[in-house]
Amino acid sequence: MTIAGQLAEFAHGVEAGKLPPRARETIRLLMIDVAGLCVAARGFDYIAAARGSVASSGKATAIGHTGGYAPYDAALINGTAAHGEDYDDTFEGGPVHAGAVIVPAVWAAAEHRGLSGEAIVKGVAAGVELMCRMSLVAPQATHKACFHPTAIFGAPAAAAGVAAALALPPEKIVNAIGIAGSLASGIIEYLADGSSTKRLHAGQAAQSGIRAALLAEGGFTGPATVIEGQHGFYKAFAPSKTPDFVPLLDGLGARFVLETVAFKPYACGTMTQPFIDCAIELAKSGVRADDIVSMVCEVGEGTVHRLWEPLALKQKPPNAYAGKFSTPYCIAAGFIEGKAGFEQFTDERVADPALRALAAKVSYVINPKDEYPKNYTGHIRATLKDGSVREVRKAHMKGGAHEPLSEADIITKYFDNARFGGWERRQASALADALDAISKGSKVDLSVGRS
């Protein structure tokens, strides 16, 4: 059996009622987190642009917006919104943002076809599990090839998730995965100027997953060897490493890695977040920004080309979105403002002289023993004007497997995001209640998310 065949057998065989309780609870919280992010982003210009590209109507909901959309369009808008501020879930070891791709894809297909809550849980479980596992096959090689893992792995995983929700037979799920291999795309050149394409990647992958699943349902075919083939997925998107398929297949169906999905406490790039915690702790120790001569951080080599270089640009990010992928700026924001939420990532804030002055003092050295991408750590060694040195380390990412956010933290984040998006508590509560009901297998009603 090909690898796609094994993935298809898994996706087809997922039973919502037999999922481990922790896996099912993670799916519930993923849906709530994604929904809050969709509301938070609904007023941004890139979402207006995405909605402006829509040319059809249908039954599917774009959370936070009026009317009904065709499934492709709803998936595009919701996925782009969920990933747009980089406040969405992540997966240590990948990294990928599975919830922002799979949840919008399965939601849109479910509303389009009138599927049950159980079908949504099945589809999200299958898609998120496969997306996380696919990201472990050739660590760092996708980024090295200039592709965005969320975009690349999202398309086939969403195809499998949607196909599972539609209860397609394994042979058609194989075709869906095979088709999605030709729909996957997304390069990381947005790093050069903070443009919007990274935001698009999750929505695009969700849209591609639906398209691949529906094409397969109708009889369209895709290569069964799409994953391991001589001209296949990893040859194309991760050519610098020999793929190791053990993390993809080992325990598939018996053990759910999706249970370790990380929920972010900060609205910025994943690997910057432990450094923010270091900066907050350093500021709380009584150090003032004016006391600091320099801050040197030990980092994993695999993070340098996205989050640290070119260093002069990262110390002066050109706009708010670029600031989310600048560790020097994120450290400065954490130190001076004590947080890294939506208000820290505006064009006005990233141009603030005090933040830029501190960011200019931040540099890095590569730590060859850093565990990235298996573990995300933080470190700051600050030299002060009096010659003393203060050092702070974080062994893990807050929100990750070693230090997860609580359910209460995630629910608070949801309501905060809904409020940021202009919703009253009553409306946010209605959507949260609907998602709770869906996660328990009840009737799907996302229309309460329209406004």
List the keywords.
4 strands, 2-methylcitrate dehydratase PrpD, 2 domains, 451 residues, four-stranded mixed β-sheet, 6% strand, globular, 60s Ribosomal Protein L30, Chain: A
Strand order of the largest sheet: 2-1-3-4
CATH hierarchy class name of the largest domain? Mainly Alpha
Order of helices and strands: HHHHHHHHHHHHHEHHHHHHEEEHH
Per the CATH scheme, the topology name of the largest domain is 2-methylcitrate dehydratase PrpD
Low-confidence stretches: none
CATH architectural arrangement of the largest domain: Orthogonal Bundle
Question: Can you describe this structure?
Answer:
The chain is mainly α and 451 residues long. It has two domains: 3-265 and 405-449, 2-methylcitrate dehydratase PrpD (Orthogonal Bundle); 270-394, 60s Ribosomal Protein L30, Chain: A, CATH 3.30.1330. The protein is built from 21 helices and four strands. The protein has helices at residues 3-13, 21-41, 45-52, 71-84, 98-113, 117-134, 141-144, 149-165, 170-180, 197-217, 233-237, 246-249, 273-284, 304-307, 311-315, 320-323, 327-337, 347-350, 353-359, 407-420, 425-439; strands spanning 292-299, 362-366, 378-384, 389-394. The chain has a four-stranded mixed sheet, covered by helices on one side. α2 packs parallel to α20 (407-420). It starts with a helix and ends in a 12-residue tail after the last helix.
